Known about the structure:
Layout: H1 9-35, H2 37-43, E1 49-52, H3 69-87, E2 89-93, E3 105-109, H4 134-140, E4 144-145, H5 147-154, H6 186-190, E5 198-204, H7 229-241, E6 245-250, E7 267-270, H8 278-287, E8 300-301, E9 317-318, E10 329-331, H9 340-351, H10 362-365, E11 366-368, E12 379-388, E13 392-401, E14 410-416, H11 421-426, E15 434-440, E16 449-457, E17 463-465, E18 471-473, E19 477-484, H12 487-497, E20 515-520, H13 562-565, E21 574-575, H14 579-584, H15 623-629, H16 634-642, E22 647-648, E23 659-662, H17 684-689, H18 693-710, E24 714-715, H19 739-754, E25 759-760, E26 762-765, E27 778-780, H20 783-790, H21 792-801, E28 805-808, E29 812-813, E30 816-817, H22 822-828, E31 838-843, H23 854-860, E32 864-866, H24 882-900, E33 913-916, H25 920-961
Parallel strand pairs: 3-4, 3-5, 5-6, 6-7, 9-21, 10-27, 23-24, 24-25, 26-28, 27-29, 28-31, 31-32
Antiparallel strand pairs: 1-33, 2-7, 8-11, 12-13, 13-16, 14-15, 14-19, 17-18, 19-20, 22-23, 29-30
Helix pairs in contact: 1-25, 3-8, 3-18, 4-8, 9-12, 15-24, 16-24, 18-19, 19-21
Amino acid sequence: MKGKKPISKVTAAVSYIVCxxxxxxxxxxxxxxxxxxxxxxxxxxxxxxxxxxxESEETEHFVSDFDSKEERKAHLEELGTQLEAEGxxxxxxxxxxxxLGDGAKISLFGQDSVDPVYGGGGASTIDTxxxxxxxxxxxxxxxxxxxxxxxxxxxxxxxxxxKTQPDVYGVGAFTVNEVPAxxxxxxxxxxxxxxxxxxxxxxxxxxxxxxxxxxxxxxxGYHYLQLDGNERDMLQMAADNFEKVIVxxxxxxxxxxxxxxxxxxxxVLWAGALGQTGSYAVADVLTGAVNPSGALVDTYAYxxxxxxxxxxxxxxxxxxxxxxxxxxxLVYGEGIYVGYLYYETRYEDVVLxxxxxxxxDYTASVQYPFGYGLSYTDFEWSDFxxxxxxxxxxxxxxxxxxxxxxxxxxxxxYMQSPYTEYDKENGIEKAAAELAGFAKTSLLEAGAGETVTxxxxxxxxKAYDAKGAGTYIVDAGSYYFAAGTDSHNALNNILAAKGxxxxxxxxxxxxxxxxxxxxxxxxxxxxYASSAATxxxxxxxxxxxxxxxxxxxxxxxxxxxxxxxxPETYKDGTWExxxxxxxxxxxxxxxxxxxxxxxxxxxxxxxxxxNTAALMDLDPEDSAWDTLIRQMSVSELDSLVRIGGxxxxxIDSIQLPATTDKDGTAGISSAxxxxxxxxxxxxxxxxxxxWNVELxxxxxxxxxxxSISLGVTVWYAPACNIHxxxxxxxxxxxxxxxxxxxxxxxxxxxxxxxxxxxIVTVKxxxxxxxxxxxxxxxxxxxxxxxxxxxxxxxxxxxxxxDALGMMASMNRLGARWSGGHYGLMTSTLREEWGFKGFVVxxxxxxxxxxxxxxxxxxxxxxxxxLNTDAGLWKLSDAEMTPTVIGNMQKASGHxxxxxxxxxxxxxxxxxxxIVSVMPLWMKLLVALDVAAGIxxxxxxxxxxxxxLKKKQSNAEIQDLSK
Length: 962
């Protein structure tokens, strides 16, 4: 009898098990796909909506300035080169060693030459496969490279030596791993003579999200910001074989560079990270096609650990806390004395006789001051003038290029406030010099000059008095304003205006002609006690962020007693915290028992159904916004607020379009979520080093161009935390140690990006100034330093550029998570600064972020959770109280307003409709489900049929045997 062979029971069982496994796998897979559908759509760069509009309607609200993709790409890449070119800082140039000129034959030393630092790790990672390498860039610009040495590093024995860094999860370590001197072959050494115009030594250091650098020595005997033994041997090799040695610092964190003075190094360039096309700029500066005009945004100390903040930088534990992510702490014991605010102030105290010269030697402490940078030409300043206006001091300086080549110069204006007895009594600290304004000249040809005018707001004269007036004050006394080439030069000019000279301990005589004095006769506690932005009263908001809230006897660093108040690691790094702190670390929010059920899912009888596009031009205070939000259902409110990771939700009831959101402070990046990336620029520290706000604005505008092209509306940037320590792993993506410079650069970036409809989220708000324990760590700082240093960049971005988004930090301010801190998110951000947009959390997609509580955050003023899990943070029906729903409506209004002012509205008008579409990946998933279902059904049917046939056959055989 012919036919299919009967199936065995074992084979049938296996078939059924496989089919069951396929069905279970599909169920689980579909479940996760639906749970993370927004993230998957972002990853595959697929739309989830389309717009239906009348052809007669004007719907393109934000458009590109370019006629073609090629034209746009060329401009964006050229901007990357220009940012790097103007950000490069010339630190040393002995006997005119640079520029090299065209056609120079050079030998490139260091494994960093073939593996340079283009960006940093984590959310700002750039795709190095599209970056221009050093060899191609240098060759393109006319330099001739030693190929034997290049090949040694690239494919020869040197290929086994490469720097390393931790991954995005913090796994791994920062290592230098330079090639040891004994690995260089005789062939390599023999190649030096032919390419002897210069030895260009590349020194590389990188940084990354999640991990900081350690001030402890590595296995090499040196810490990460020091040149190690192999690098020193490499410098010696270069010095022994070349008459001209040039060092290029492909680094972001301030290095200890005193060792370069021990070797015969002729020139030093700081280049920072290069971005996609910055290698061209390095070549241009070496050849002289570009005259370097950048200036340092950090103080370079001989000993990086000499900064007072280093006493409290690292991993410290609250030993008796069992609160989830609430067992780490950090005390900003240095107060306002970060970077040059410390080094310059202590120097002045020595000169004024308020500090023992034996206790502090500025010249032995600081190698390169904040704002320092040289040029291939010389500039002469004259005709300093200061004119008082109603709200500003207009300070002008004539700058003339007295050298032989064209160049740009930077006029920096510093202010000194009086340090009074009132200040000492009330714990107010004053720095000897504080950046108050700056401007960069145009490109001045040899012999040409221009008058540079810098506008300094009088508001900068205020200081925060938490203990006395409980608001901002202006002290009585003498205020000095000085122009300088850097912070130290400006301070010397101020000291000269005070009648001081080298006879008093100054390291160099200043010039009193570049300083002006303003006298305030009486203490003013009223002028700045109300917000200039909103008119609201300004009062203490960060009392519980101050460690003295829990430890009243604690003393912050004070210039009234440097040695007596010098910071020590708080509680030696292990703190048995008081009960009050342990209680405050717990999640806390308030239910309004008298709150009535908010009106939801309701259309206004008079206005009819509104859509978001109809309200695009309305002020956020207009009542129509409340009417619009009342159209949303409770489930829509919940979805919009709670699921905001890398995308915001489409809301049909108000025709709010969805957005795609991405990271990347150096350009829109697909590093974490896939999809397409935009142009990768040098990071923010390089942008700040240009001291060119117009370039920062163009950078923002070009981010906007990529935003329109890629369909990415929300940009998780710019980043505005402070270089509190040289060792922070994320200093590359923050601007500076100075809050004013950071704020001005951020504001121009925001202005440029928002001109193209980008929603920025200025981050990380606030006190996220180290990576260690950024997740839940309790950061303690006094109110003056919080306001004057750490919040200043964010404030400038809001007040100067009307930033539409903020990103909360993952750390705590004192005991309270930043997103749950009402004083930060509402009292300061909205009521003082006039912020109108939305606040999004940092990462909130996993249970590990459970302390970023939804109800606590909503109450404080946080609006959107960076959460990709549709099930996470979901509240029960009982938990969806009138208070929670009301807070969700408020948050939804903030989100809707920001989206309404973004390029997500392109294609939309009052008469258009948003229609949901199924993305291609979901169609493929449905097709897979159907195909798998058919296959499983067929297998089950066939297997079952063959089992039945076997059973029937066995029965027939038994009948025959009878």
